[in-house]
Specification:
It contains 6 helices and 17 strands. It has helices at about 15-30, 65-75, 155-165, 185-205, 260-270, 275; strands spanning about 1-5, 35, 80-90, 95-100, 105-110, 120, 120-125, 140, 145, 170-175, 175-180, 210-215, 215-220, 230, 235, 245, 255-260. Strands 5-4-3-2-1-17 form a 6-stranded mixed sheet. A 6-stranded mixed sheet has the order 8-9-10-12-15-16, with helices on one face. Helix 3 (about 155-165) packs parallel to helix 4 (about 185-205).
Length: about 290
């Protein structure tokens, strides 16, 4: 399968961001991309650096004008397109939602982010209600996609449940970067941990992992921090955790990557982790902590 990833540096001009993404989607499709993945909350700046009720104005209705535009470009290009939107589900009820469009422009499915962080400069609990649809893969004309979003990528349970429901790829639109007060050494440890844990999901489940991050410095509107420097580093890992491609840390990237879908079948024959799971001894995994 030919995968297109778009690592973009966003501005405060939402319309310009969308035009840039659509132009890059078309370019990747012309190169032969079959699946294109965008970063998390790709239409705007990362607004969760502050808690402001005014930012709820950024949310969009699904379906609506914005989903129609992405649907149109998926149909025009004949691709499966993974997007990430700020969903207004109802007045006072909002989600961080990945929408997947099939090659004919139809909605293949959606995934509402399950794990919601609440850290300095990542005040997502103020904006997003946790997802209520579970870890359910999305069926497309290219196969069954295990789509999750950003903070979900740190949790092996979500990846495992997607794999157990037949996901053929694990996909994570992402917005993550450096905390400005951390030392360069600590920043690098964080970036490598982020990469490593997801490569572990690839190994443990015998699946390719596709992670697409944003890039560039986005200022803190409140001025209380030095903003977030998104570390890019979007990557595709193979089913043994091998890095097939890793994007730059500090620049945009619009890249086509070839993956061999048959490798998952072979790797799972060599390493039959699903076969050897001791499901008769995992009942405590649904507890918060074992005292």
């Amino acid at each position: 399968m030919k995968i297109g990833i778009i690592q973009q540096r966003n501005t405060d001009d939402i319309e310009a961001n969308r035009r840039s993404l659509i132009e890059k989607i078309r370019s990747l499709a012309q190169q032969g991309a079959q699946l294109v993945v965008l970063p998390e909350l790709h239409d705007s700046l990362y607004f969760c650096q502050v808690e402001s009720v005014d930012n709820f104005d950024l949310a969009v209705e699904i379906p609506g004008e914005v989903t129609r535009r992405y649907s149109d470009v998926a149909r025009e290009c004949g691709i499966v397109l993974v997007t990430s939107l700020f969903e207004k589900r109802a007045i006072g009820l909002y989600h961080n939602t990945a929408m997947v469009f099939d090659t004919d422009g139809s909605v293949a499915g959606q995934y509402r982010k399950m794990h919601i962080p609440d850290d300095p400069a990542y005040y997502e609990k103020f904006y997003f209600t946790p997802g209520d649809q579970g870890f359910v893969p999305i069926d497309t004309s290219l196969g069954r996609l295990g789509v999750m979003v950003c903070w979900d990528q740190w949790y092996p349970e979500g990846a495992r449940l997607m794999a157990m429901r037949g996901a053929q790829l694990l996909i994570y639109p992402t917005a993550i970067g450096y905390e400005s007060s951390d030392s360069p050494e600590e920043q690098e440890r964080q970036r490598e941990a982020w990469t490593t844990v997801q490569r572990g999901h690839a190994v443990a489940n015998g699946l390719h992992v596709i992670t697409v991050n944003r890039v560039g410095l986005e200022e803190d509107p409140s001025g209380q921090t030095n903003g977030i420097k998104f570390w890019g580093s979007s990557f595709v890992a193979g089913p043994q955790g091998e890095l097939i491609y890793r994007a730059p840390i500090d620049s945009e990237d619009c890249r086509l990557i070839d993956i061999d879908m048959e490798r998952s079948e072979q790797v799972r024959r060599w390493w039959p982790f699903l076969r050897d799971r001791r499901i008769d001894h995992y009942s405590d995994i649904d507890k918060r902590y074992l005292d």
